[in-house]
């Protein structure tokens, strides 16, 4: 349980620092108003990404754990020229391992995986600055960026967990910025297709609501279809149907999610682990995202994407039985920079609790042996199991709250 205590300790320190910052929010925002954005973001990244990395992995010389070692297995083999899906297993899109392999050419060590994730997180925040600047003053954005850097859900999952989920937001925000500059749906579609090839299969889900509201549907589809055909033409002769390995992730049971917390109250009779739950989750998350996108079809794209992104991926986090709370890192940027009302003490408190629980629970659940509760008595069979189940319920409820917060409440809502 050392890693659980370490994550909890870092989270508590982060929360204390955040509370101090929030109490000084007005003064800090005014002070940041006159600072240069790029330099300030770089300094924030230095203090809350690079320095923690150096302290944990170079000074304390801690070994990498968990997903980092899996990423190392993929990236190291890709750097040696081995073929993804054939020579090594991967739950990610085909270019993911090779991108990591490029970084490993600079420093052939698992710790380089963590540094790569930190750099990509910094790039995602920088792109978000250009994405959100029409809606926020410089001081407000820079203050929110510091909040984001310090939140446990980004700090711990980036530097300790080395999660890559934020890459998906990076690509979709970058795609829009390129389209805005070039006034071309083709480049927009190309970058989205590259994002799909670089990250994971669930990136394809956002393409459904984006296609729904896209006015140039044919020009949007053609580049993606062409890139898809070329990708299959390369992959199939090399690996056959093994390129479907990322789909195996949908069969992996994790927690917390709605099936995991309901299962004991139905005495294991709701079919947990069955494929129909995957379809229910898929239809629910994509369906809600499409409804939200349609309601926001006349809104600014940035508004629409921010809200639809949270609705889609936060819902997926609790309805898909293969998802787990690390996915908070997937939608934390639009949640922090656009949806949360920083004048609402209630929203702030719930966000902080949500972050701490989402960071701590995966490691706690894993070290309990990944329990699956069959009956109500199972949830209270020990204090450890009761704590786990209460955390699961809390995360699911809080996720539902933030989905509700992001979901447009009226037709054609544009704010």
From TrEMBL:
The chain crosses the membrane at residues 6-23, 43-60, 112-132, 141-162, 185-213, 220-239, 276-294, 301-318, 324-341, 348-366, 386-407. It comes from the Bacteria. Keywords: Membrane, Transmembrane, Transmembrane helix. The keyword Transmembrane applies. The keyword Transmembrane applies. This is DUF2029 domain-containing protein. It comes from Dyadobacter psychrotolerans.
């Amino acid at each position: 349980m050392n890693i659980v205590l370490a994550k909890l300790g870092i989270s508590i320190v982060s929360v204390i620092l955040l509370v101090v910052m929030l109490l000084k929010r007005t003064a800090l925002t005014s002070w940041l108003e006159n600072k240069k954005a790029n330099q300030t973001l770089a300094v924030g990244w230095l203090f809350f990404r690079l320095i923690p990395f150096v302290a944990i992995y170079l000074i304390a010389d801690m070994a990498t754990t968990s997903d980092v070692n899996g990423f190392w297995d993929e990236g190291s083999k890709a750097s040696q020229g081995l073929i993804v899906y054939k020579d090594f297993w991967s739950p990610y899109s085909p270019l993911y391992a090779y991108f990591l392999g490029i970084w490993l050419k600079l420093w052939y060590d698992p710790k380089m995986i963590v540094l790569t994730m930190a750099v990509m997180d910094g790039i995602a925040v920088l792109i978000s600055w250009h994405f959100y600047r029409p809606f926020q003053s410089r001081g407000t954005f820079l203050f929110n960026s510091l909040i984001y850097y310090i939140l446990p859900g980004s700090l711990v999952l980036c530097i300790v967990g080395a999660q890559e989920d934020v890459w998906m937001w990076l690509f979709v925000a970058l795609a829009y910025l390129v389209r805005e500059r070039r006034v071309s749906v083709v480049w927009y579609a190309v970058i989205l297709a590259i994002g799909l090839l670089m990250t994971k299969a669930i990136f394809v889900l956002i393409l459904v609501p984006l296609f729904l509201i896209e006015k140039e549907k044919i020009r949007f589809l053609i580049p993606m279809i062409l890139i898809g055909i070329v990708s299959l033409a390369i992959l199939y002769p090399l690996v056959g149907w093994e390129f479907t390995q990322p789909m195996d992730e949908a069969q992996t049971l994790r927690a917390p999610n709605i099936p995991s917390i309901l299962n004991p109250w139905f005495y294991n009779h709701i079919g947990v682990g069955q494929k129909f739950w995957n379809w229910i989750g898929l239809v629910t998350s994509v369906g809600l995202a499409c409804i939200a996108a349609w309601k926001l079809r006349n809104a600014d794209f940035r508004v629409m994407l921010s809200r639809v992104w949270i609705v889609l991926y936060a819902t997926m986090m609790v309805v898909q039985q293969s998802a787990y709370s690390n996915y908070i890192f997937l939608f934390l940027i639009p949640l922090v920079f656009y949806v949360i009302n920083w004048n609402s003490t209630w929203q702030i408190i719930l966000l902080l609790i949500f972050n701490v629980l989402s960071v701590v629970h995966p490691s706690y659940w894993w070290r309990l042996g990944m329990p699956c509760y069959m009956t109500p008595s199972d949830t209270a069979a020990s204090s450890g199991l009761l704590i786990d189940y209460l955390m699961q319920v809390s995360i699911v409820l809080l996720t539902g709250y933030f989905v509700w917060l992001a979901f447009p409440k009226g037709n054609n809502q544009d704010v």
